[in-house]
Amino acid sequence: MNGNRYLGLDIGTKRIGISVSDILFIIARPLETILRKPESTSVDKILALCAQYNITKIIAGLPINMNGTMGPQVDDVKQFINLLKEKTEIEIVFEDERLTSKQAEMHLTAQKKKPSKNKGLIDMASAAIILQQHLDKRR
Question: Where does 5-138 sit in CATH, by number?
């Protein structure tokens, strides 16, 4: 794969949704969903994708509460990101992910897909929304 890209992550307690940008950093697309546990395995899978797609930046969704406060899920995501940072020099930034799962569900429903049947689809779509938000801010 030629060209650099960004990777988007929607880090949940059970699964991690992953998305990737195009080489022009305009469009984010869902890539896959992986199981979070064991965390050493999920970190290795993310790093393998980083190598495969020439990733230069990782954008991780930060699950801030609707009122703007940081709850225990934020600490959980940061703990996982710290594991990732121990194994890579790739820049990792956080992106507010409020309402991305709801947006993803609505998007999938509009495509006549049943998000309730496949939570992994929601995770991937959420990762793409998180990454797209970041890409849109760059312009």
Answer: 3.30.420.140
